[in-house]
Amino acid sequence: MSVITPAIATARHKSWRFNMVGVLLSALVVSVLGTTTAQARTLDTAYGDVEVKGTPERVVTLYEGALDAAVAAGVKPLGAVTTRGGDNVATYTEAHLGEDRPAIMGVVREINIEAVLAQQPDLILAPAQLSDEQYQLLSHIAPTVVPPTQPLAPDNWKNEARLYGEALNRQAAIAEAIAAVEQRAAEVGQAVEEAGIAGSAFLVRWMPGGPMVMSQNLFATGLLAQAGLDVQDGGLVGERGVHSDVLSLENLSQVDGDWLFLATLNEDGQAALEAAKQSSAFTRLNVVEQERVIPVDGQLWTSANGPLAAQAILDDIEAALLP
Amino acid sequence: MTVPRFATLGVRRASPRTLMMLLLTALVAVSLVSLLIGAGSVGPGRVLALLSGTQDSEAHFIVWELRAPRTLIGILVGMALGVAGALLQAVARNPLAEPGLLGVSAGAAFAVALALVLGASAATLRISVAQLGALVGCVCVLSVARFRGVGNDPIRLVLAGAAFSGLLASLTSLILLYDQRAADEIRFWVIGSFAGRRLDDLLAVLPSMLVASVVVILIARPLAALALGERVASGLGHHPNLIRWLVVACVALLVGAATAIAGPIAFVGLVVPFVARAFAGPDIRRTLWFCLPIGPLIVLAADIISRVVVAPSELPLGVLTALCGAPVLIAVVRARRLPML
Amino acid sequence: MKTTSIKSTSMPFTHATRAALGGNDPVSPPQGYWRFAWRHQQGANSVLFEQRAVVVNLGLFGALLVASVIYLSLGSVKVAPTTVLKALVGNADMMATFVVQELRLPRLAAACFTGAAFALAGILMQTLARNRLATPGIIGIDNGATAFAVASIVGIGVSIAPPAMALAGATTAAVLTFGLAAGSGTQGYRFIVAGIGVGAVFGAVTQLLLARVAIDTANAAYPWTVGSLNARPSGALQLLMLGLALGLTTALALARSLTLLRFKDATASGLGVNVKRRRLEVLLLSVALTGLAVAVVGPVGMVGLIGPEIARSLSSSRGVPLLAATLAGALVMVLADLAGRTLLTPIEIPVGIVTAVVGGPWLLWILMRPQRSYT
């Protein structure tokens, strides 16, 4: 991937960039005058160093993790993309947003750049998968923060949240939110241990042909591990992969641990569990016979990201393991 | 009426009866192999031990609960796709007519996407949805392409199918743009597989397969007459248009049933009749008979390969048949004389 | 006395006559043609323009201009048409100028040039195959480009940018189809069916790739599977502009033999066309144009059917309406993307979906009409 430093704009865009930055800066200075001294921060993003000044007030998030981090840091974004399977933002963030719903900036597959412009943002928080061409346009509108792509690890969300928090000039609030998650995870882990619950666990998504085993390096599986379960992926997920290929039903015993978390993208997790139970290969697993299969919300567990999502997942874990 | 000379493969010297016996033996052998081999750890040795009376609950479960239903489904899907292909090619008088090329798979995929959006889950999806979609897709393309005149222009039907499939694929994409959940799930449906399909699924589509079989038996003779030309068929007291529409209905039922169970499986409907004609010659009735063992043979062989090449996972069958079937399609058109049916 | 020899020229709808020296009688043009004559030292020249073709092309061009202005003014940010014109010369306020110059103008250019290239490639292919339903997409080029671009995004193989990979994929598919159809010639359905086979393989590969990655990665690959004009690569666009300029010139130069290619091979040969060679040239041209366009926008094959169909319905059947098809393709693409951007704001519908949803039913209607001869 070619790394383009926004500071070195192409000749064609040069005058434009400076004009736009000038406009935005003057707007910014006016808006934050008297509240914060405008200090410039240099952020290390996927597209090189990006400079952000002051405390951005007009924020647009183009990624669910960014929305989560921004809301956790106390910012109500002006715009956000829709979540998967819905025409608005994810359900778990709605409680935190109250009445201030962000305007919709399109879907993550097709970001409406003009809608972003219409909000006249002073900061854009974008996903790591943003394409080069989209970055070129968005970075003309406002400083655009794209997290660097990291090798898959359970704690990736912390780095992303910190980056977004720094861009928002709310480093302390983000650090606090992350610390709160860590403390909560430790508490849940403690309670789980005291309840005498332990053992191996798998997180899978159930497809008609069999299960897909989710990586043990995911956000949600990391939290499960912190809660004291020995999360495994049976060596089925490759280095880069988020999930395995659909596992043959003949090899279902490979996910037969002490706990099975069954992620479904359906609203009714119980229905998906019933569907899985129609397969005799599934019902003969030990974990199923012992009724230690826990249906969870796939939208939250396999695709969300951020401090608020972490709290929501810990809620789920607590409810499932500590009745 | 030209005889497909290139397609004899030197096998026509043997009598049809002997050939049929050979094919049936091969089918039994492949079915056995299908029971013996899988993506799991239960290998041929353990299965043979099980069959000779050893107690082995793991092997027993895998052979009788997983591999046996799957083999049965493979046999029926192979028969359905093979016969449907032969019927379609006969009535369209076009050796390239293939259910998968004609929008049937696209219709089924569209219906599945629609159902997913309306709240179903891929795990709980009712099999009738895909079947309905396949039926509608098939009828649409065939009525659009219309049979009269197609005999002179084999490519017209293919192009109509391609255009129609493109339209349906775009409509599916439009739905998936809005619904990420459906987008996430349909990725796994469109690649076609027998894995995890249960006998209940088979029971759900068995009625339509049976109805189609009865109709095929009834129209085989008129169809053979139609192959001699419209006037000959009329002269013998048949109704060409009625025959055509019955064939369309049969094809839609058969392909719809197969697609509903296994997802889109490309090219089987093209390859099977091609091979069957090599065995049976130009007579449509004999070709149909030969499709019955050849279809399952090819589908089961592909399914067995799909189980072992990427164990412990499985390669989707639809991908495998597309990869293997396309060369056959190309071989058919590269043949010096394209058989006119 | 006058001796008149008629020479074929490189113009699509003209017949130039060179009058002998000293012949100064006015020559009345055939019915339905305009004749323009001029004199110079060596003698006199005259050019015949088919009235209908001139009107159609000018009309389409005018429509394209109007559509462009509307395209530049509508969207999530509204810009008045008068402001659009000001913004184009840099005379408007910051916001309007940014929207028009940076966001919409490159997108408009991408729409125009890809639409034009698809439609031109389409009408070339249709003339070649003598079938109104043939497009380069049907011989697997679109699928090849998609498979390669998706492979690049999901991170399989070398990390080349998706547009370059799309171009490589289109080339690979074309080469495979040519190779597999070799010996059976480039005529008729053997070639097309070989292409369908190649396309099916690439389609299966794409689906397999998409099923093996996480949904976020699959999302990033989405524009390459449906065709979208949102934030397109500028390098590929410049390449396309160059290719289209060359391609259109070449196509217009081949116009006369294209007209003859519509007839039976024997007839065309008899009229002095080297059928085999001309076919190969036209086919290569069509494939190259499609490959370049796909590298910009992804698979939007439907335009290759709609553009030529509009052009044919407007034009007389005297020649192959190359220029009209090119303009119509650009117009269709611009209108489709305009609709995609504005109909369901704030959600944008990718242009590939709009063309298919609108063009599909229309196409079916064409298919269901009683079959006419090719023209």
From TrEMBL, chain A:
It is found in: Cell envelope. GO terms for cellular component: outer membrane-bounded periplasmic space. Residues 58-323 form the Fe/B12 periplasmic-binding domain. InterPro entries: ABC_transptr_periplasmic_BD (IPR002491), Bact_iron-sidero_bind (IPR051313). Signal peptide: none annotated. Keywords: Ion transport, Iron, Iron transport, Signal, Transport. One of its GO terms (biological process) is iron coordination entity transport. Belongs to the bacterial solute-binding protein 8 family. This is ABC transporter substrate-binding protein. It comes from Vreelandella maris.
Automatic annotation (TrEMBL), chain C:
Keywords: Cell membrane, Membrane, Transmembrane, Transmembrane helix, Transport. The keyword Transport applies. It is found in: Cell membrane. It is a multi-pass membrane protein. GO terms for cellular component: plasma membrane. Pfam families: FecCD. One of its GO terms (molecular function) is transmembrane transporter activity. The keyword Transport applies. One of its GO terms (biological process) is siderophore-iron import into cell. The chain crosses the membrane at residues 54-74, 108-125, 137-158, 164-184, 191-215, 235-261, 282-307, 319-339, 351-368. Belongs to the binding-protein-dependent transport system permease family. FecCD subfamily. This is Iron ABC transporter permease. It comes from Vreelandella maris. The lineage of its organism: Bacteria, Pseudomonadati, Pseudomonadota, Gammaproteobacteria, Oceanospirillales.
